[in-house]
Amino acid sequence: MNTKLSRRVxxxxxxxxxxxxxxxxGTSPASAATVKPVAAKSAAAAYNGVCGTGxxxxxxxxxxxxxxxxxxxxxxKGKNCAVTIRNTAGAKLYMEVRLTALESEEGDAxxxxxxxSYAGPVYVNGRGYCVxxxxxxxxxxxxxxxxxx
Length: 149
Description:
Blueprint: H1 3-27, E1 56-63, E2 67-74, E3 79-86, E4 93-101, E5 109-115, E6 118-125, E7 131-137, E8 140-146
Antiparallel strand pairs: 1-2, 2-3, 3-6, 4-5, 4-7, 7-8
């Protein structure tokens, strides 16, 4: 056998051993000593359904580490709804949700005040417009836009 062919056979055999060994190692259960604990993340606020029947979540934006602003859409009504929800209900603090159909003459839909768990819901006619939404919880504020229909 020539040296080039011998090297190819040796290389192919070595690669086969590595592949089989890797597959076996990948299927063996991890021992308790190799499992690393995962740090618990704060649970994000879940959408609470407050916009009503027929509204489906189409986007969400985190509001710092305090909560989430959800944007929903109701195809049958052609309306968007937004709500800002805290991760954990607690003492009253300033919260806001603002929803705007961009380039519409409808104006902003806003709910702001001292709340324990959520601000909103607020609604705009979204058919034919892009929308922007803003959420505030305490000193944390976030915003986004899109979903042109």
